[in-house]
Design brief:
The protein has 3 helices and no strands. The protein has helices at residues 6-19, 25-76, 88-95. The longest helix is centred in the middle third of the chain and has 52 residues, at 25-76. The model is unreliable at 96-100 (pLDDT under 50).
Length: 125
């Protein structure tokens, strides 16, 4: 980011020791570290806020595209091609046999493994 190498850091350290002095240097570095930490925190918060705004804008664009696509599909698909959703009575027929007899299933629709006949064998009595 700033492209500071080893010679520049050495020069800054020598100047800091001469100007600030070895006695106050740890306190000055601690103070500088706090400010650097605060600056990094503010940049992190700014970046996360900016990223969330970009994500929201992208989601709005995608929702618009999905709405347009759904509207186009609804215009192109006649109502006669739409199939009705299965009802509960249809689901009950699938649990029992084709006549709707649920003799093998209990009131919750559970079929015990013992009542299922295996291919080539008759149902147990």
């Amino acid at each position: 980011m700033f492209d500071i190498g080893a010679p520049e850091i050495l020069l800054i350290a020598i100047v800091a020791i001469i100007v600030i002095g070895p006695k106050d240097l740890p306190m000055a570095l601690r103070y500088a570290g706090k400010w650097v930490g605060k600056a990094r925190g503010m940049m992190r918060e700014f970046r996360s806020g900016f990223d969330s705004m970009v994500r929201e804008a992208e989601m709005d664009e995608m929702e618009k595209k999905w709405a347009e696509n759904n509207a186009r599909i609804m215009r192109e698909t006649p109502d006669t091609e739409m199939l009705p959703l299965p009802s509960e009575s249809d689901a009950e027929l699938e649990i029992g046999d084709k006549t709707g007899n649920k003799s093998d299933a209990d009131e919750d629709g559970y079929i015990s493994p013992d009542s299922i006949s295996k291919p080539g064998k008759d149902k147990p009595e």
